[in-house]
Amino acid sequence: MDTAGIAPLLSMTDVTKVYHAGQSLFGKTGSPVVALDHISLEINPGEIFGLVGESGSGKTTASRLIVGLETPDGGRIQLDGQNIVGLKGRARLEFTKQVQVIFQDPYQSLNAHFSIFDTVCEPLIIHGLGDRVARRVRVCEALETAGLTPPEMYLERYPHQLSGGQRQRVAIARAMVLEPRFLIADEPTSMLDASISFQIFQLLNRLRETFGVTMLFITHSLAAARNLCDRVGVIYRGRLVEQGSAQETIMHPRHPYTKALLDAHPRFGSSGHRRFGTLLLTERPRPSTDHCLFYPRCGLAVDNTCNLQAPTLKTLDAGHRVSCFLF
Ligand SMILES: Nc1ncnc2c1ncn2[C@@H]1O[C@H](COP(=O)(O)OP(=O)(O)OP(=O)(O)O)[C@@H](O)[C@H]1O
Ligand SMILES: [Mg+2]
Hints:
It is a single chain. By secondary structure, this protein is α/β, with parallel strands linked by helices. It folds into two domains: 10-237, P-loop containing nucleotide triphosphate hydrolases (Rossmann fold, 3-Layer(aba) Sandwich), CATH 3.40.50; 252-327, no CATH class. The protein has ten helices and twelve strands. The protein has helices at 59-66, 89-98, 106-109, 116-126, 132-145, 164-176, 194-211, 222-228, 246-251, 256-263; strands spanning 10-19, 33-43, 48-52, 74-79, 82-83, 99-102, 182-186, 214-219, 231-236, 239-245, 314-315, 321-322. The strands form two sheets. An eight-stranded mixed beta sheet has the order 6-7-8-3-9-10-12-11, sandwiched between helices. It has a four-stranded antiparallel beta sheet with strand order 2-1-4-5, with helices on one face. The protein binds adenosine-5'-triphosphate and magnesium ion (MG). Magnesium ion is lined by residues 59-60, 186.
């Protein structure tokens, strides 16, 4: 979709998050983990933006910062141009109406002791919306939106009585019941098999088309992002290394890490086999000086450049940005 010139709905500017591991039994303090390192990205209204990276790259940290479960150590996060860091009281409540999140594991995100009705109704109660009758109507609408029909069949059931795909649909119904403007889906299908995952992608796409919901879709799979996203950002150890339209980034990846991620799923690649050869090294020793974060693993690294300085994001064409000295 062409959103050039439109003000972003969500923006992160120079956001950094450092975790300090606690002391161990022996009094040792672990070294700090930089989960996000000066991340900047903008998500436009109605867009599905994919944040893609391997395990531990900082994807969930980004989602926790956006919904306010964590506070950044630096930078700004804004919704509609308004600061959303550190909101309290009424402002926080108002914000949670607009921004909802679906987590990876519906087993953990749904309360096993709550019926499906109670699960989906709870946000309405928290926000004091509707009376008993209106709430029931709204819960049924949300279940239908999430593809659980007829909704009456599900109201009195409990999470353990549903399949994994149905449970994730309940989580989506709960997220949609307040009609949010912005939805974060944090690896929503990683516990599901391929055909159910595909149905959930279709559902997310329908939510965008029907309700205009803007989305941050978090995944470790570029193939999944290609199915769903307008634009993607590729994150490596807390830094954005490449960003662009989903088509362009996946068909013509520039950063060696993006290429390596694509090679990790060769059956989804255009030719059905590895496209890029050996790009990932087992780790080289880390240089003591400043260096490209990917240098220790990069099969294309250039000595006396990549080991001596860190690249910044450069814009190539049509909004395609890459942080690599090869470009
Ligand atoms: N509460 C915490 N305390 C200490 N370190 C943390 C904490 N949460 C995350 N981290 C670390 O921050 C880094 C980023 O973690 P994060 O959960 O954001 O990664 P992720 O990309 O979501 O990974 P995954 O794909 O496995 O879900 C990791 O190194 C992780 O160990
Ligand atoms: Mg995660």
